[in-house]
Amino acid sequence: MLKHILGGIKAYSGTFRLIATLRLWKYFWIPIIISLLTAALIITAAYSLSDAIGLFISQAWVWEWGKETFTVISEILGGLLILLLGFILYKHIVMALSAPFMSPVSEKIEEHLLGKSNHNHRKTSFMEQLWRGIRINLRNLSMELLLTLPILLLGLIPVIGVVATLLLFAVQAYYAGFGNMDYTLERHLKYKDSLLFVRKNKGTAIGNGIVFMLFLFIPVLGVILVLPLSVTAAAVKTVELLEAENKIARVPN
Fold this sequence. Notes:
The chain is mainly α. It has helices spanning about 1-10, 15-20, 25-60, 65-115, 125-155, 160-185, 190-200, 200-215, 220-245. The radius of gyration is 20 Å and the shape is elongated.
């Protein structure tokens, strides 16, 4: 597992050069705008709703003494809860809406790596790619929320809380990497086969997603670069995995 995680991380090396070589930046402008708008909406929601959620949480404190302190803490917790939910929603919204723009990127990378321009793969339309992205990310969102809630409860237990934090980060990373890998998989595998493929290569998905999540902690620049670099890295690694399983073939020189 660790080897595959490291492989997913290492795939990011050379992504800037590959994007420049294949002139892919023009494909990223709309996804970057989607990414910036989504991030802005989430941050605005966290700021505007933290007071209301904090007030709701503070009602649990029935005593007069310490009421003001508990209210302030509740407002902070409310903002953090929205940001956590925002982290989860952000990647699924952005990856779902960006699917029609990222599929051509992964296809050009695949052509570059395999040395051919005529692939024997499924041809899908803009709407089919968008629907596939929405379907995959809705499924991943529901699974991630189901896993996140019990992990948050575990986090309330002393000592175990540290492990729960790492586990929560790994879950988010896995589903981020999953979405990035599917831009390539959608041309070669059907929906259910893609789920099995990513599950089999979950270490690679986690490795890709770890860097994706870390980029989100970089103000503004991280939101701009996260999709171009993570999609490029995922495409490179996914093509490698598909080739290793004989699902695609390289053109002989």
